[in-house]
Structure formats: C-alpha cells, structure tokens
Amino acid sequence: MFINAVNKQSYKTITINIDEVNNVEDIELFFALLYKERIFFHPETSLSGIVNTDIYGNQTIRTFTNEESERLDGLMDKCFEVAEKENVDIFKVDMRIQKLIWGEPKKKNH
User: Residue 86 in contact with residue 23, Cβ under 8 Å?
Assistant: First the structure.
C-alpha cells in the first residue's frame, strides 16, 4: 500500500511558484524552489527533459507540462541575463543554493 501511494505521486506534474526574475535574489529563489522539489538540473539544460520516476526508478511522466517547461526555460534565460548584468557567476550561485537546500555531499571513505 505504501509503495502504491508513493508511486501515485510519480504521475503528477508540478508547478514552480515564481513569476519573474529581476535580480540575484530572484535567481536564488528560483533555484531554491527547483531544488526544494528534489529536481536535479543544470542551468544550461532545458527543464523540459526532466522526468518523474516511481519508487523503483522507472520513468513515469515528464515533471513539467509543455507550458510549464517553456515558462521555466524563459525564467532560466532571464537568470542568465540578470547574472550577466549583475556580474555574478550563475553556476556558483547554483551550486551554493544546491548545497543550502540539499546539504554537503557525502564524502567517500577510501
């Protein structure tokens, strides 16, 4: 029953609740909202290719609808514009926010 309940969630699309990006704080918020949803992304890659998986790791449906993907990709383009204007490294911002939301990666014991 638990597995069925979890898997049911893998068939839902999501919406990221941000409408515009105008400054570095908005970039940080946008990235934080994506990472909060457990979305692993790269700023240079379209968000349209992100796919949900079930508890077994099998792909189910795309995480975002076509409309949401287009909107989010437009916001990501705006992130690059703002980062360039503000002279900040968007990839450093991305990694900092990812660590804030997900924590430091586990170190491997050798």
Answer: yes
Q: How far apart are CA 47 and CA 39, in angstroms?
A: 9
Q: How many CA atoms lie within 13 A of 25 on its CB side?
A: 0
Helix (H/G/I), strand (E/B), else coil: 11:
coil
User: What residue segments make up the domains of the chain, in order of their start?
Assistant: 2-102
Is residue 68 a contact partner of residue 78, using CB atoms and an 8 Å limit?
no
Q: Tell me the per-residue pLDDT of 72-104, one tens digit each, with 9 for 90 and over.
A: 999 999 999 999 999 999 999 999 999 999 987
H-assigned helices in 1-110: 2-9, 24-36, 66-86, 90-102
